[in-house]
């Protein structure tokens, strides 16, 4: 035993040296961005960054300006904070910046899915075919049916449905949209009541995984939490397995198209199940939280609620929400809701905070800023954009950026406003909730349709009110910065009831 002590000690010293030496010896070269490695070898600024990314990057921008390189957990991230300089990064015509590499590493860690080189092209092709035009209309019909089932139950209206119910607004929105989205995409059995119970169980476990997700990505879980994540992953792989799917009807053509592609590529059934888990997360992880913020802002701003209700009444006409009955509704009307579009765009501006990442392919790659200044980037470093801070909260682009203005994205004549400026220059990327370029969310049209349908139904078919009308809008949970739509630090209680038949 004594013989192994010095061997293990030497091995530990080697590991520490391997991790720390890159941070100790890296120095800023001529023409490189300002380098801030932090005080802790290898970790650098990782702990402060993970504690509150938004506040930390504000401090770094104030200290270093619009471009700086940070050491975060053994890797180097160059943050570009000037939105007028985003264009070359997002377009990247010479393919010197790679989005796919980092994404593959992440989905393997989080979902267990080993991505194929053709996956990105396949997902965009499937989305263009089934999440736009007639394909989107078909999914909208399925989503509306699922929302009716979730909101009314398998037997439709009962005396209880017109009574006041109290719930947390975040829980209600997330739960309702997750279950409806899951059933729309992954199908039903013949027992709708059992389907709803299974969807409820699935959401409860999804929420557990969701709460662990930020620290899981950063490898900050405790031993018991790692075991819990493993159990949850195994549960989802089993529940979303191909064999389980064969028992259902109505699986969306979008999901079926992608699974067919994987089968043709020789991907086994176990890996297809992991792909399903990834797509469940991608499709359902943000629409519930976004809808929470949208409804909360409407409840806190009566003039906005009134404007949306008037538009919704015009769009929906005499259509009624009834289980087991067709909802008579022209889905093309979803393209003619400028007020609701502005509300959702403003909600996403205030609540969506993804990080856009690109891995540098070549040494001495040039980053050209709008000012004309050029910086050199190193191979293996990661270029990072955080549009929430650099675009969506910029008072030059969006005056009073922390204030919800439901008509911010409307022109005086009611058309969509797309002209925004920074320092007198028109800016193309004035909000970026869906990412941009090669990493733009392929399911954004479906997500918007789902949220619009949900909000339209809620404001026209339900009476809604906050339990405490004076409750403030909760702060953002600081752990959620950088992971798509933010989530509140605590829930907000509200009451709702289905309006009586007229």
Automatic annotation (TrEMBL):
SUPFAM superfamilies noted in UniProt: Cytochrome P450 (SSF48264)
> Where found, per UniProt?
Endoplasmic reticulum membrane
| Keywords annotated in UniProt | Endoplasmic reticulum, Heme, Iron, Lipid biosynthesis, Lipid metabolism, Membrane, Metal-binding, Transmembrane, Transmembrane helix
Q: Which family does it belong to?
A: Belongs to the cytochrome P450 family.
Name of one Pfam family that matches: p450
Organism of this sequence: Galeopterus variegatus
User: Topology in the membrane?
Assistant: Single-pass membrane protein
Q: What is its main location?
A: endoplasmic reticulum
Q: At the top level of its lineage, which domain of life is listed?
A: Eukaryota
Q: Which cofactor does it need?
A: heme
- The entry's protein name is 5-beta-cholestane-3-alpha,7-alpha-diol 12-alpha-hydroxylase
For this UniProt entry, which segments traverse the membrane?
6-25
């Amino acid at each position: 035993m004594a013989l192994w002590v010095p061997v293990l000690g030497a091995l530990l010293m080697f590991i520490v040296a391997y991790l720390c030496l890159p941070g100790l010896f890296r120095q800023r070269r001529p023409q490189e961005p300002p380098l801030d490695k932090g005080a802790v070898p290898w970790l650098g600024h990782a702990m402060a960054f993970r504690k509150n990314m938004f506040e930390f990057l504000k401090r770094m921008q104030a200290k270093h300006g619009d471009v700086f390189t940070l050491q975060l957990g053994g890797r180097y991230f160059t943050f570009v904070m000037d939105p007028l300089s985003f264009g070359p990064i997002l377009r990247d015509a010479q393919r010197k910046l790679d989005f796919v590499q980092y994404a593959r590493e992440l989905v393997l860690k989080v979902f267990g899915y080993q991505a194929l080189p053709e996956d990105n092209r396949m997902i965009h092709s499937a989305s263009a075919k089934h999440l736009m035009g007639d394909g989107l209309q078909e999914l909208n019909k399925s989503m509306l049916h699922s929302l009716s089932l979730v909101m009314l139950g398998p037997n439709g209206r009962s005396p209880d449905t017109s009574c006041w119910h109290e719930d947390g607004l975040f829980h209600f929105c997330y739960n309702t949209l997750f279950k409806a989205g899951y059933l729309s995409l992954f199908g039903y059995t013949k027992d709708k009541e059992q389907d709803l119970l299974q969807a409820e169980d699935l959401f409860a476990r999804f929420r557990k995984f969701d709460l662990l997700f930020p620290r899981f990505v950063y490898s900050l879980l405790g031993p018991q939490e790692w075991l819990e994540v493993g159990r949850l992953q195994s549960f989802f792989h089993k529940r979303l397995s191909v064999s389980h799917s064969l028992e259902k009807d109505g699986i969306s053509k979008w999901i079926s198209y992608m699974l067919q592609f994987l089968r043709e590529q020789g991907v086994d059934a176990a890996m297809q199940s992991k792909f399903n888990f990834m797509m469940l997360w991608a499709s359902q992880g943000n629409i519930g939280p976004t809808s929470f913020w949208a409804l909360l802002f409407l409840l806190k701003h009566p003039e906005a609620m009134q404007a949306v209700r008037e538009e919704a009444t015009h769009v929906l006409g005499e259509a009624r929400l009834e289980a087991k009955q067709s909802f008579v509704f022209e889905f093309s009307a979803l393209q003619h809701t400028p007020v609701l579009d502005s509300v959702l765009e403003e909600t996403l501006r205030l609540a969506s905070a993804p990080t856009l990442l690109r891995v540098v392919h070549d040494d001495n790659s040039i980053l050209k800023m709008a000012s004309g200044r050029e910086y050199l980037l190193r191979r293996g470093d990661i270029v990072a954009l955080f549009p929430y801070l650099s675009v969506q909260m910029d008072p030059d682009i969006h005056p009073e950026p922390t204030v919800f203005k439901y008509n911010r994205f409307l022109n005086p004549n009611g058309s969509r406003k797309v002209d925004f400026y920074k320092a007198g220059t028109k800016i193309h990327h004035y909000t970026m909730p869906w990412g941009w370029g090669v990493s733009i969310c392929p399911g954004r049209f479906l997500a918007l349709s789902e949220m619009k349908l949900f909000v339209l139904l809620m404001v026209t078919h339900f009476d809604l009110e906050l339990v405490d009308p004076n409750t403030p809008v909760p702060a953002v949970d600081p752990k959620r910065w950088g992971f798509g739509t933010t989530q509140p630090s605590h829930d907000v209680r509200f009451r709702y009831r289905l309006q009586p038949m007229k």
